[in-house]
Amino acid sequence: MEPLRGDESSVDPGETTIATRGREVGPVPVGAVLRELPRPAVAWSEAGQQVAAGGSAATIAADGPGRFDTVRRAGEALFAGRTVASDLPRAARPRLFGGFAFHEDDKDDGQSQWDGFPDAQFVLPAVQVVSDADGSTWVVATATGPSAASTADERLGEWAERVASLDDELPTGGPGIERRTYTPDDAGWRRQVEAAVERIERGTLRKVVLAQALTVDLRDELSVPAVYARLSETYPDCFRFLVAPEGGGQFFGATPERLVSRDGRTVTTEALAGSTGRGDTPEEDEWLASELQESAKDSHEHELVVEAIKAQLDPFATSISTGDRTVRRLATVQHLQTPVTAELAEDDHVLSLVEALHPTPAVGGLPPDEALETITETETFERGWYASPVGWFDADGDGTFAVAIRSAVATGRRATLFAGNGIVGDSDPDREWDEVQLKYRPVLDALE
Ligand SMILES: C=C(O[C@H]1C=CC=C(C(=O)O)[C@@H]1O)C(=O)O
Questions:
Q1: Which residue in 143, 197, 149, 214 sits closest to 1, CA to CA?
Q2: Which of 140, 159, 253, 356 could form a cystine bridge with 22, CB 3.0-4.6 A?
């Protein structure tokens, strides 16, 4: 099916009647399902809920500066004609899954690993396997158009049968890494960080998140479903995601960072910035965590993010509150984290909040425009969808988006991993290099 593009007028309500049907099945391993599903494929896991989805009942794509608005309006037009079988749990309702490129005018020259990833793309999956937090698993089929109901019924029958007879054998080890190429290399990184620090000392820039890319040539064919399953085991508390558009590469990761969730008028987000490593013993872990809590550099970097998020939410909110700052401990790094919640004054759509919050200074910087300019002028690789909003939204305008860090894009036997660090006035290039290497580990470990 051709993606719906542009404004509401391109969406014919007669063509977009949605029918959703579902059936409860026994537990199914996510990797095995992903291997079976057609493209475009998406996977999403949060808070005990796991979705693996494939095929498209409808696709929305958008490019350029109005992309958030375009997607929201096309989504609203699409959802207007939906019918959902009444026996389905909330987790199986129609949702659009996808995300955005980091920059609004992302250059897709047709030759990079980002080929096939537009500035924004969302898919209403034809088939989903949803494992809900209560332990139940559902096969869900969705179809659009005049014969939506009968197509959804047929699709459900076919997929419930296929899912029941899945072979769950997946490669147990990673494909192995033959060659690594860093962009920039360590000397180039040093120059970039020094130039950013100089810019901060000289003028009005306060913080910029500089990132780098690590391209790995793989020894064996990569099974993204197997890597996704491995990330799900190692990072159960992170958002795991996979976006595999038709005919493009596969973008995946396990990110600790929520961009925003909207549930009615309640908004949840967080500041996550300031990092240190993990220790070899519980005592060393504690020592590193308390050093992080007390570090003036990390506190400054973190507080800039908290203040910016509050300011970004302010125009929407009747109240904003922040929780206690804690240390979030992951498998290879520890971060300073502050939860932020807000109550909306009106029923703003989650995509309006995504637009307001992206990029947070945890992946962009401050002031935002100057930081973005610095990133564009400095970085020598394509961010594509790295550090961008990925997630879902539904017919009510509720949704959850994560920040797509700890991620990689893969095509064939090659994967490019991304990682970045917040640079402030007293950043040291060597320490920043070491810290960035820790952020490659989640994906790297799954590939080795
Ligand atoms: C930009 C990344 O991390 C951000 C999130 C947490 C901590 C960060 C930091 O300490 O610099 C970064 O702002 C990344 O992982 O690529």
A1: 143
A2: 140
**Domains present along the chain, CATH in parentheses:** 8-164 (no CATH), 177-225+247-447 (3.60.120.10)
How many C-alpha atoms does 414 have within 13 Å on its Cβ side?
Answer: 11
Instruction: Give the number of other Cβ atoms within 10 Å of residue 266's Cβ.
Output: 12
Q: What is the DSSP letter of 3?
A: P
Is there a contact between 393 and 95 (Cβ–Cβ < 8 Å)? yes
406 close to ligand 1 (CB < 6 Angstrom): yes
Q: Answer whether 272 contacts ligand 1 (Cβ < 6 A).
A: yes
Cα–Cα distance, 408 to 33 (Å, whole number): 21
Q: Is the CB of residue 214 below 6 angstroms from any atom belonging to ligand 1?
A: no
Cα–ligand 1 centroid distance for 236 (angstroms): 19
Dmax (CA) of the chain: 65
Residues 170-214: pLDDT tens digits? 777 889 999 999 999 999 999 999 999 999 999 899 999 999 999
The pTM of this model reads 0.94
Q: How far is the CA of 363 from the centre of ligand 1 (A)?
A: 6
Taking each helix axis from N to C end, the angle separating 67-79 and 350-357, rounded to the nearest 10 degrees, works out to: 170
The residue whose C-alpha atom lies closest to atom 13 belonging to ligand 1 is: 362
**Considering only CA atoms, which of 104, 60, 117, 108 is closest in space to residue 355?**
104
